[in-house]
Sequence to fold (209 residues):
Amino acid sequence: MKLEVLNIQGQSTGREIDLPESVFGIEPNEHAVYLSVKQYLAHQRQGTHKSKERSELSGSTRKLHRQKGTGGSRKGDINNPLFRGGGRVFGPKPRDYGIQLNKKVKRLARKSALSSKAAGGQLVVVEDFSFEAPKTKAYKSILSSLQLTDKKSLLVTADYEKEVYLSCRNLQRAAVVRAADLNTYQIMNGGTLVLSESAVSKIIENLDR
Fold:
């Protein structure tokens, strides 16, 4: 498939870029996308939750009263989970929520997400640009030219562009990511994908295998 290359004023440059069907035109595999997004979100969890069980509480281990003959229920020490301030039964412990996923599945998920965006008309290719200094106003002007002011957008650059990143950082609906760091969650959650020309080459290089 071919897409027109725009400049940062939103006008056509008269050039077209060829997007290979093997990356931007496959039949999306929804389950692969689900697994990849699940893995990303799982890795965002800290897993530092912790509650104390009865053996970890400070308190006397003396048996409160004899086992039989009181007419009441059997009780152990003051750290019994049935008492207020007692330990918790099978409480949460620190753990790693991360899950493993094959590289081929993750690659398929990214291809599926990109193909979904392409099929839905949420893909824009712009010529490479950079800023001499961080200017949020300049980045907003580009979004306005591309008619993305009130929409979510994700700009994908070939390399880390510090000034572009800082210009975008204060905008709630916009984000910037390097092509090598692009993942399935960002593609699906990013709204309209704005790809720089050189970023397209990087994406194809990473995924067209």
